[in-house]
Structure formats: C-alpha cells, structure tokens
Amino acid sequence: MKMLITGGAGFIGSHLAETLLEQNVEVHIVDNLSSGSISNVPENVTFIEEDVRSASLQHLMAAERYDTVFHLAAQCDVQHSISNPAHDASVNILGTLNVLEGCVRNKMTKMIFSSTSGVYGNPEYLPVDEQHRVQPLSFYGLSKLAAESYITLYHALYGVPYTILRYANVYGPRQNTKGEGGVVAQFMNRLFTGSPLTIYGDGEQTRDFIYVKDVAAANIAAVHNGNQGVFNISTGHGRSVNTLAALLGAMHSSPLLLDYAPAKSGDIRDSCLLHAHAAKELQWTPRFSIDDGLRQLYDYYAASSPGCP
Ligand code: NAD
Fold first, then answer.
1. Where is each NAD-dependent epimerase/dehydratase domain found (predicted)?
2. Contacts of 232 (CB under 8 A, 6+ apart)
3. Which residue's CA is minimally distant from atom 22 of ligand 1?
4. Which of 130, 174, 246, 251 to pair with 226, CA 20 to 30 A apart?
5. Rounded Cα gap, residues 180 and 77, in angstroms
C-alpha cells in the first residue's frame, strides 16, 4: 500500500505518518513547511516540499497512484483566518480542490479529509452529533465546511471515494501553540519555562480534548471503513480549562502559577462531540484517557526540557 499525507510535516500528520510506517505502508508527504517542520518528518518517508495548490501535486498523484490520500495540509490558525480570509480560503478550499483533481486522475484514490468541530459553531445541544446544524463562527470553519462540500460534490460527479473526519481539540507532542486545541501546548510550554498559565475568563469553559494518537488511529480506521461518511472524532467528554490546569498541576513538582485574564470575545463556552457514529461505522473509539494522554505529553516535554522542574 502506498499513501500520501498532505501536511505530514505538521503535528497530526507526522503522528499519522509514524503509525502508517509501523503498519509497513509506503508513506509520501507533501508539505510546504509553512507551519510544519522537517524535523517532524519520520525517517523512511518520501518527503516532497511542495504547496498543496501546485499543479505538480496533480502530476505526482497521477504518477504515484496512491491508494489513499490523507488531506491534512491547511491554514489552521483561526485568528489568521479572520485577518486574512482570502489566504485561508486559498489554502483550505483551493488546496482541497487540487487534491480532489488529483484523486479524479486516479479514481481509486480515496480521500480522507481532516475537518473540524469548528464547522458547527455555537452548539445548540451537547454532545454535538453529525446532524447538528453547521454555522461556523470563523472563516477557518467556513473554509473547512466549503472543502467538505467540494468533496461530497466531487464524489457525486466523479465518484471520488472519501471520508470526512471532524476533530475535536487535538493535543499531543509536536503541537505548536497557534492551531486549534493550542491551549494544551500553551500550558505545557509555560509550565516548562516556569511561566504562569494564562486562563481566559473563569476557566469553566469546556473543550473535548483528544490525544493525537487516537486521531491518527481514526484516520487509519477510515482507510477501509466509513466510505462517504462524516464522523466526529472526539472523546465525548467536555473538560474545563481549570480541570486541565489541575491535572497538569498534579503531575508537576513545582507549584502551578495561574494568571486569569479577561474572556476572549467570540469564544464558545462549551464544546463536546458525540463519536457514536465513528464507533459504529469506523469501528474506532479513543484509547487514551485524558490522564494517559496528558501523562504522555508531560513526559515528552520533560524529556525535551532536561533540568526543568
Ligand atoms: P499543523 O499546522 O501542525 O499542520 C498543517 C501542515 O500543513 C503543516 O505541516 C503545514 O506546513 C502544512 N501546510 C499548510 N499550508 C500548506 C500548503 N499550502 N501546502 C502544503 N502544506 C501546507 O496543524 P495540525 O494541528 O496538525 O492540523 C492538521 C489538520 O487537522 C488540519 O487540516 C487542521 O485543520 C485539522 N484539525 C486540527 C485540529 C487540532 O486540534 N490540531 C482540530 C481540528 C482539525
């Protein structure tokens, strides 16, 4: 099996690459390194430094005849999408279109698309299922939703097989602090530099934090299952930001410094996604509890910050 990961030099894509290699899949990565890093790319991967919007991507896909393309390359910074919606749309919509054109050249290539809970906007009920109405609050959520629509229409017109995965807030090693779910990475960076953890508002806002290895496993589950489906990839549990800080505090030997700042305007209060559809159709459920995932991440930071408390 030969598979392509766009955005494979990034946080989630690099974990997906590692997991595929463990299963003896030949892995190719296309990434322009705009937010990813070559140091994230595992050995034994064919790395192509390229923009996902480039014409050469289509030539590559035609020549390599991948079994599956995992499309993760994206502009993932919500604030950037507000200040520069054209750039966000260019990468997230036109980039997806280009990958779809590559799939049309090889009709057997299935696209597995990384989407986001951001397509739902403010929840009308919790946990949010896939039937919840979609009303994004940012251009990032909107561009992801538009990309989803292109994918479903490409299937209707050209038969391109697909699975769409809507992630909750992903956390784990190699995450940068800018993207979605960045609060865990921000807390870790601050913890290991001895700085206070900034909590916006009262800290009782909740998020559904899912460990990156579980997200990689969901992508792999989608290779053979869930054709033409849309799936929430989540834990199904909302955890408050205060709880997150307390869990990290319990692992850390030095006292935790907390800095409460005014709530960010436009932030949703609570977020939690139901993953029953993925459990049934993808035969996937998360394996990492929040304690296990945070422990793995804490140990990763501790190993890369020798001498820190
Ligand atoms: P990331 O920024 O670490 O990875 C994105 C990768 O895409 C980077 O390596 C970047 O260099 C690459 N890239 C960006 N623009 C590109 C372009 N024009 N051409 C080629 N490569 C390009 O982000 P991540 O957190 O790993 O996110 C991966 C995917 O998961 C994204 O599609 C994101 O929207 C989605 N997602 C992430 C989360 C989360 O909590 N991290 C939640 C929901 C959805």
1. 3-233
2. 117, 128, 129, 130, 166, 168, 273, 274, 275, 277, 278
3. 73
4. 174
5. 7
C-beta of 214 in contact with ligand 1 (< 6 A): no
99, 51 in Cβ contact below 8 A?
Answer: no
Parts of the chain belonging to CATH 3.90.25.10: 173-208+237-271+289-304
Strands (E) across the chain are located at 2-6, 26-31, 46-49, 68-71, 110-116, 162-167, 169-171, 197-200, 206-207, 209-211, 229-233, 239-240, 258-261
DSSP 8-class letter at 40: G
Instruction: Dump pLDDT digits (tens) for 253-307.
Output: 888 999 999 998 778 899 999 999 999 999 999 999 999 999 999 999 999 876 6
Residue 60 above 70 pLDDT? yes
Write the residue with the smallest CA distance to atom 21 of ligand 1.
31
Task: Give residue 308's pLDDT.
Answer: 57
Residue 241's nearest CA partner among 214, 212, 271 is 271
User: Best substitution site from 50, 72, 209 to test ligand 1's pocket, by max atoms within 8 Å of Cβ?
Assistant: 72
- Going by C-alpha positions, the residue among 186, 189, 190, 226 that lies closest to residue 209 is 186
For domain 173-208+237-271+289-304, give its CATH number from 3.40.630.30, 3.10.20.30, 3.90.25.10, 3.30.1330.60: 3.90.25.10
> Euclidean distance between the first and final Cα of the chain, in Å?
44
271 pocket-lining for ligand 1 (C-beta < 6 Å):
no
Q: Which residues are catalytic?
A: 140
- Find out whether 278 and 232 touch, Cβ atoms under 8 Å: yes
pTM of the model as a whole: 0.97
Residue to mutate (ligand 1; options 28, 35, 60; most atoms within 8 A of CB): 35
Ligand 1 pocket member 210 (CB < 6 A): no
